[in-house]
Amino acid sequence: MNSAKSFLILSIAAILAWGCAHSGEEDSIAPLAPASGRVDPGLGPGTQALSSGPGYKGSPSWSPEGDRIAFTVDGYVVDKPTGSEDLRHWTTRDFFAEDTEWEPDDALMILGAAPSAGTQEISSSLYRAQPGDDSLELENVENEVTAIGAGEDRLYFALGSGAHESWLAMTRSGGKIDRRYSNPIGGRVAYLSLAPDGEQAVLAVRPPGDRKVSVLRVFDLRKGQGREITRLEGAREILGTPQWTEQGIYFVAGKQSTTLDSDGAEPLYNIYRVPEEGGSPELASGVGEDFVAASIRVSPDGRRLAVVGRLNPKSPTNLYVLDPLAKVLTAVTTNEDMEIKTGPDDLAWSPGGKSVAVIARGTPSTEPEVRADPADRLLRDFYNLYEIPVDSPEAPPR
């Protein structure tokens, strides 16, 4: 084998190894050229790749106009227009972001942690990033923030320094805190989202001192008062953000486990529903008793749920849409050769509700491979964002 050919194979192997690893360290590697339609992502007709190249992608977030999408790459925050590869950085590469939300003025609110010298303990804070700030300096809005949820023109967040009590606060465009709610919430708020009318929030809470209970609370944002609507016992935990639909509140939950089941399988999670007035959680109708859920997101109109999951434990992971009113689950993708990422925050509806962004890559091979494909045909080997069109049925009468 001549030296030039050896160098080419080693270079491709190095790029693949980087793209499939999730590391806090980052080297400067140029992204691959966009596929320009030459690579079939295996996610159905009309699917568009929204990113390319190596890096561990996560937490997609559409701009209010739907023309840009923000996401994390190995923890730091970038965004780009949906129709080009013009990547824009919002944080330094040593930042670790958990979630991002857009403001109406195209600024970004970022929940994450900046590196702290001399300590191993890093707590998350809420930051505001301005577009066009080449210095990548972030404005610190509040420390010890555990969850964020965006409304039409404001952002609500939960904060608390420990596991015993949390509080809610609200900020509008500009990063100024407009209101702090005085009534405390018992426990640590892990996830937060708003009702379709924006006047109430649903909170996933871990009560103090009890590691085997998860609680859902509803908080009236006008009155500043909250109430418990359901609790899960038996070491079941809520995975990801509860979603408030017109037919009630849906969430993914399952039994907590740090080990595999006796048959070697991972713990299985289900979709549950509880009415907004409260009650015992029940399995969501329409998905099937064997369905294994990973993540859910409510559509902008509050009438549908995007669902990433499997029809049964041995099925491939796909994207589905659940109509809670009709109790019908529709498969959006039917792929068997793409691995859709199953993180609780790794899917997002476009503002118009016509498409969903997911993160996926080609199913990894268990055998070593050497391929002569050009670099742009190796897009499938990295986790990347894809926009998948979703049929928008005629809205039923209210």
SSE layout and pairings?
Layout: H1 3-19, E1 48-49, E2 57-62, E3 68-73, E4 76-81, E5 88-89, E6 96-102, E7 108-113, E8 125-129, E9 139-142, E10 145-150, E11 154-159, E12 165-172, E13 177-180, E14 185-186, E15 188-194, E16 200-206, E17 214-220, E18 225-232, E19 236-245, E20 248-255, E21 269-274, E22 282-283, E23 292-298, E24 305-310, E25 318-323, E26 328-331, E27 338-340, E28 347-349, E29 355-362, E30 384-389
Antiparallel strand pairs: 1-30, 2-3, 3-4, 4-5, 6-7, 7-8, 8-9, 10-11, 11-12, 12-13, 12-14, 15-16, 16-17, 17-18, 19-20, 20-21, 21-22, 23-24, 24-25, 25-26, 27-29, 28-29, 29-30
What is this structure, in a nutshell?
This protein is mainly beta and 398 residues long.
Question: How many strands in all?
Answer: 30
What is the CATH top level name? Answer: Mainly Beta
Name given to the CATH architecture = 7 Propeller
The computed structural class is mainly beta
Q: What does the overall shape look like?
A: globular
Helix content: under 10%
CATH fold naming: Methylamine Dehydrogenase, Chain H
CATH superfamily: YVTN repeat-like/Quinoprotein amine dehydrogenase
Major sheet characteristics: 5 strands, antiparallel
Q: Mean of residue pLDDT?
A: 83
Output the radius of gyration: 21 Å
Beta-strand fraction estimate: 35-45%
What number of domains? 1
Please report the number of helical segments: 1
Distance, first to last CA: 70 Å
**Low-confidence spans:** 1-39, 394-398
